[in-house]
Amino acid sequence: MDRDTLAERIVRAPFHRWLGLEVAKADASGVELVMPWREEIVSRADPPIMHGGVVAALIDTAGLYAVLAAGGSALGTAYMHVDYHRPVVSGTVRVRARALKLGRRISVAEAMVYGEGPEPLASGRGGYFPP
Length: 131
Hints:
It is built from three helices and eight strands. It is an alpha+beta fold. The protein has helices at residues 3-12, 14-19, 52-69; strands at residues 22-27, 30-35, 42-44, 49-50, 76-84, 93-101, 107-114, 120-129. It has a single domain, classed as Roll (Thiol Ester Dehydrase, Chain A). Keywords: Hydrolase.
Protein backbone atom coordinates (compact mmCIF):
# COMPACT_ATOMS: atom_id res chain seq x y z
CA MET A 1 0.00 0.00 0.00
CA ASP A 2 1.46 3.36 -0.98
CA ARG A 3 1.18 6.72 0.76
CA ASP A 4 -1.78 8.01 -1.27
CA THR A 5 -3.81 4.82 -0.84
CA LEU A 6 -3.20 4.89 2.91
CA ALA A 7 -4.21 8.56 3.09
CA GLU A 8 -7.49 7.68 1.34
CA ARG A 9 -8.18 4.89 3.85
CA ILE A 10 -7.58 7.25 6.77
CA VAL A 11 -10.09 9.75 5.39
CA ARG A 12 -12.71 6.98 5.06
CA ALA A 13 -12.25 5.80 8.67
CA PRO A 14 -14.15 8.22 10.96
CA PHE A 15 -11.97 7.69 14.06
CA HIS A 16 -8.72 7.98 12.13
CA ARG A 17 -10.05 11.10 10.42
CA TRP A 18 -11.03 12.55 13.84
CA LEU A 19 -7.49 11.96 15.09
CA GLY A 20 -6.29 14.15 12.21
CA LEU A 21 -3.74 11.59 11.04
CA GLU A 22 -1.49 12.48 8.13
CA VAL A 23 0.70 10.01 6.26
CA ALA A 24 4.38 10.96 6.25
CA LYS A 25 5.53 7.60 4.85
CA ALA A 26 3.99 4.35 3.68
CA ASP A 27 5.84 1.57 1.90
CA ALA A 28 6.73 -2.08 2.43
CA SER A 29 9.31 -1.14 5.09
CA GLY A 30 6.74 0.59 7.29
CA VAL A 31 4.55 3.59 7.88
CA GLU A 32 4.91 6.90 9.66
CA LEU A 33 1.81 8.78 10.73
CA VAL A 34 1.71 12.32 12.12
CA MET A 35 -0.95 13.68 14.45
CA PRO A 36 -1.32 17.32 15.45
CA TRP A 37 -1.82 18.14 19.12
CA ARG A 38 -5.40 18.96 20.10
CA GLU A 39 -7.06 19.85 23.38
CA GLU A 40 -9.57 16.96 23.00
CA ILE A 41 -6.82 14.35 23.49
CA VAL A 42 -5.59 15.73 26.83
CA SER A 43 -6.29 13.75 30.00
CA ARG A 44 -4.42 16.08 32.35
CA ALA A 45 -4.46 19.83 31.86
CA ASP A 46 -1.44 21.02 33.82
CA PRO A 47 0.89 20.02 32.34
CA PRO A 48 -1.07 18.84 29.28
CA ILE A 49 -0.57 15.11 28.77
CA MET A 50 -2.07 12.98 25.99
CA HIS A 51 -4.58 10.38 27.17
CA GLY A 52 -3.06 6.90 27.23
CA GLY A 53 -5.94 5.52 25.20
CA VAL A 54 -5.08 7.87 22.34
CA VAL A 55 -1.44 6.75 22.52
CA ALA A 56 -2.59 3.12 22.35
CA ALA A 57 -4.90 3.93 19.44
CA LEU A 58 -1.97 5.44 17.53
CA ILE A 59 0.10 2.29 18.07
CA ASP A 60 -2.81 0.07 17.06
CA THR A 61 -3.66 2.10 13.95
CA ALA A 62 -0.08 2.42 12.73
CA GLY A 63 0.51 -1.31 13.27
CA LEU A 64 -2.51 -2.27 11.21
CA TYR A 65 -1.51 0.08 8.40
CA ALA A 66 2.08 -1.22 8.50
CA VAL A 67 0.77 -4.74 7.86
CA LEU A 68 -1.25 -3.45 4.89
CA ALA A 69 1.67 -1.41 3.54
CA ALA A 70 3.88 -4.51 3.67
CA GLY A 71 1.41 -6.40 1.49
CA GLY A 72 -0.42 -8.27 4.24
CA SER A 73 -4.10 -8.23 5.05
CA ALA A 74 -5.62 -6.99 8.30
CA LEU A 75 -9.20 -6.38 9.31
CA GLY A 76 -8.94 -5.81 13.04
CA THR A 77 -6.83 -6.19 16.15
CA ALA A 78 -6.43 -9.62 17.75
CA TYR A 79 -4.21 -8.44 20.60
CA MET A 80 -2.03 -5.50 21.56
CA HIS A 81 0.58 -4.65 24.18
CA VAL A 82 1.63 -1.07 24.95
CA ASP A 83 4.59 0.19 27.00
CA TYR A 84 4.42 3.82 28.12
CA HIS A 85 7.97 5.18 28.54
CA ARG A 86 7.25 8.87 29.17
CA PRO A 87 4.19 11.12 29.05
CA VAL A 88 3.28 12.46 25.63
CA VAL A 89 3.10 16.23 26.02
CA SER A 90 2.10 19.03 23.66
CA GLY A 91 3.42 19.16 20.12
CA THR A 92 3.21 17.13 16.98
CA VAL A 93 3.15 13.38 17.61
CA ARG A 94 4.66 10.82 15.24
CA VAL A 95 4.14 7.08 15.21
CA ARG A 96 6.37 4.75 13.20
CA ALA A 97 5.40 1.14 12.61
CA ARG A 98 6.66 -1.87 10.72
CA ALA A 99 5.29 -5.32 10.04
CA LEU A 100 7.19 -8.13 11.74
CA LYS A 101 5.22 -11.09 10.40
CA LEU A 102 2.65 -11.43 7.65
CA GLY A 103 0.62 -14.52 8.41
CA ARG A 104 -2.47 -16.31 7.16
CA ARG A 105 -4.08 -16.26 10.61
CA ILE A 106 -2.35 -13.38 12.38
CA SER A 107 0.00 -10.65 11.19
CA VAL A 108 2.22 -8.88 13.71
CA ALA A 109 3.54 -5.30 13.78
CA GLU A 110 5.42 -3.06 16.18
CA ALA A 111 5.14 0.70 16.58
CA MET A 112 6.86 3.53 18.43
CA VAL A 113 5.42 6.92 19.35
CA TYR A 114 7.59 10.04 19.31
CA GLY A 115 7.06 13.64 20.30
CA GLU A 116 9.30 16.49 19.25
CA GLY A 117 12.48 14.70 20.39
CA PRO A 118 14.33 11.57 19.27
CA GLU A 119 13.44 9.36 22.25
CA PRO A 120 10.39 7.09 22.00
CA LEU A 121 7.57 7.99 24.38
CA ALA A 122 5.66 4.73 23.96
CA SER A 123 6.00 1.48 22.07
CA GLY A 124 3.83 -1.48 21.35
CA ARG A 125 3.17 -4.62 19.39
CA GLY A 126 -0.07 -5.93 17.97
CA GLY A 127 -1.49 -8.91 16.18
CA TYR A 128 -4.05 -8.36 13.42
CA PHE A 129 -6.75 -10.67 12.05
CA PRO A 130 -7.04 -11.08 8.28
CA PRO A 131 -10.43 -10.47 6.63
